[in-house]
Amino acid sequence: MIVALSGGVGGAKLALGLSRVMPPEQLLVVCNTGDDFEHLGLCISPDLDTVMYTLAGLANPEVGWGRRDETWSFMETLAEIGGETWFRLGDRDVAVHVERTRRLRDGQSLSSVTAYLCAKLGVAPRVLPMSDDPVRTRVRTDAGWLDFQDYFVRLRCEPVTRELAFHGAESAHPQPAFIAALGDPGLQAVVICPSNPFISIEPILAVPGVREALVACSAPVIAVSPIIAGRAIKGPTAKMMTELGMDPSAGVVADRYSDFLDGYVIDHADMAEVVSIDAKVTLAQTLMTTLEDREALARTVLDAAAVLRRRR
């Protein structure tokens, strides 16, 4: 079994690669839910949906999120009657949110609803939220505290980031199957996908017991850098690092995981950083523009994990 920790687009790409080069039923993808929010009365889980759509072969290939072949009648009508349109929801996507919301309000857990939706969409790997308890990422900017989606979508990451907080994390419980997998003697590796460490991976780590379980994990923990030559592969990672007073580099990201990290995959462009990283480094092409790229990087990660297991 392989456990992968994932945010949205970048993590979903590697999760897809992993699902294609190993038995998909042996892959467990644990998703960040700090981005989750309620909008227009609907419960929306952006990272869970991006991973789910990607693994189902339904993701929009142009942007990596949302549904392919989407239609927009709902948003067009909403605009006509003066509704909020800053967070765009396609017609097919809305159906998923409506059904998720209905089931959650009937008392089902986010885990059970996610499992149901994945089964209906033909997703073979198991996909779990990091917790069934609400955790919400908030960003402190020069204009004050913002809910994450206000910062990320409505304001397009333009405000300067000063601080991040994960509200509810201190009282949340990690998803039980996730924690059980980290302690499973049959676990082969934990893969931290190339997602933004601050807003995609660290919300998962903020849930009590998760970081400790990674430290104690008998399987190697291997991460893929979301930074190539000082730039983010996707999203505002480099911008946020600079604003938080950090050098936007692969090495600095590795430092965020240093207490549990065994292996680290970085791009060939960052070869000079190898000496500063306190983990077994593997050089690879980490930019995933094609399906073949996703599969190749997945094989590299699994091979690196196998080497680390043999050394233990």
Structural description of this entry:
The protein has one domain: CofD-like domains (Rossmann fold), CATH 3.40.50.10680. Helix content is about 40%, strand content about 20%. The chain has twelve helices and 14 strands. It has helices spanning about 10-20, 45-55, 75-80, 90-105, 110-120, 150-155, 175-180, 195-205, 210-215, 235-245, 250-255, 290-310; strands at about 1-5, 25-30, 35-40, 40-45, 125-130, 135-140, 145, 160-165, 190, 220-225, 225-230, 230, 265, 280-285. The chain has a seven-stranded parallel sheet with strand order 5-2-1-9-10-13-14, with helices on both faces. Helix 1 (about 10-20) runs parallel beside helix 2 and helix 4 packs antiparallel against helix 5 (about 110-120). The chain is globular and about 60 Å long.
Descriptors:
7-stranded parallel β-sheet, 14 strands, about 300 residues, Rossmann fold, single chain
**CATH fold naming:** Rossmann fold
Whole-number total of structural domains? 1
Q: What string gives the helices and strands in order?
A: EHEEEHHHHEEEHEHEHHEEEHHEEH
CATH superfamily: CofD-like domains
The general outline is: globular
Largest sheet: 7 strands, parallel
Largest beta sheet: strand ordering: 5-2-1-9-10-13-14
Work out the number of β strands.
14
Radius of gyration, whole Å: 19 Å
Number of helices: 12
**Strand proportion:** 15-25%
User: Pairing-aware structural class of the strands and helices?
Assistant: alpha/beta
